[in-house]
Amino acid sequence: MRLVRREFIGLVVGATIGTRGAHSQQAASVRRIGVLSPFAPPDTLLWNKALLRGLRDLGWIEGKNLAIEYRYAEGKKERLTDLVNDLVQKKVDVLITTVTQDTLVAQKATSEIPIVMVAVGDPLATGFVQSLARPGGNITGLSQMTPDLSGKRLELLKEIMPKVAAVAILFNPDDQLSVLDFREAQLSAQRLGIESHPSEVRATGDLEKVLRDAVALGVDGLVVLPAPVLFGNLKFIADFGIENRLPSTFHLREFAAVGGLLSYGVDRSDLFRRAATYVDKILRGANPATLPIEQPTRFELVINLGTAKRLGLTVPANLLGIADEVIE
């Protein structure tokens, strides 16, 4: 069949437009990520904002080329398996986990979907990765492996309260990061000449009795270690400490914000922002097995001066001078 030149050009142009249209549709396709959390939505608000900000800076806009499925266990770890299985069935492109507890569940649920962990304890000891430099599986991301900071928080407490003689150490014996921090806190307490009392909290229902027992033991302060069950009850712990004149410490700023005496640890919002880089690389074709694990780079000291005054404590000027934030 003969084609006149005009018809031929029209076919070529039409084919070119069609090809460009297909590429445009492909480029505009929406990628889907799942966010699994052992916490409740209000607890993660700042972290999720940091994640979205990090993704936006890399060109991923929720509602445009990105869809996000959030799943919250709200402190009930038994819910995590069903939540992650739902995300796996939805075939998300990347799965984001927060701490050790939910990462363990995600690891059991899938060996195919890339997992970006944000703030796990020791990814080597838990078997998440083969090495920090080369993870070797479907899990990569960031670690908040800083058990030595438990000792630093005790030192800070002693600076504010030089006569502290005994503390209750609140931790969850079923949480690996919590146990690692507990061991370090015990060693630090021994080095500082402070008597330490293990206070095990596996569920919210344990908390009030554990705190009452600590008062009965005559402790001078509360050292709260990383664990979702404790993070979900920070306001209760902070209020209890104030009511019973027990200065308290934790590793996240959220604790000082609700009335705890001080917090010192990793800036978790910064970790979520940095996690966006991993998501971006994986969505663009990177293999999680070859993406090195990042260690914490930013720490923050937050002191609640109002709580100190209510407890009758004077915070040394040198500590106020180095604090990242002082809450009046």
Notes on the structure:
With 328 residues, the chain is α/β, with parallel strands linked by helices. The protein folds into 2 domains: 26-144 and 268-297, Rossmann fold (3-Layer(aba) Sandwich); 148-266 and 300-327, Response regulator (Rossmann fold, 3-Layer(aba) Sandwich). The protein is 45% helix and 19% strand. It has 13 helices and 12 strands. Helix 2 (45-57) crosses helix 11, helix 3 (80-89) packs across helix 4 (100-109) and helix 5 (148-160) packs across helix 6. The relative contact order is 0.13.
What structural keywords apply?
328 residues; alpha/beta; Rossmann fold; 2 domains; seven-stranded mixed beta sheet; 13 helices; elongated
Biggest sheet features: 7 strands, mixed
Question: Which CATH architecture of the largest domain is right?
Answer: 3-Layer(aba) Sandwich
> Mean pLDDT across all residues, rounded?
90
Shape: elongated
Low-confidence stretches at least 5 residues in length (pLDDT < 50)?
1-27
Q: Provide the CATH superfamily of the largest domain.
A: Response regulator
Total strand count, please?
12
Radius of gyration: 24 Å
The number of distinct helices, counting runs of at least 4 residues, comes to: 13
- Which strand order does the major sheet show? 7-6-8-9-10-11-12
CATH topology of the largest domain: the name is Rossmann fold
First and last CA, distance? 86 Å
Strand content: 15-25%
The tally of structural domains comes to 2
- Helix share bin: 40-55%
CATH class of the largest domain: Alpha Beta
From N to C, what is the helix and strand string?
HEHEHEHEEHEHEHEHHEHEHEHHE
- Category from helices, strands and their pairing: alpha/beta
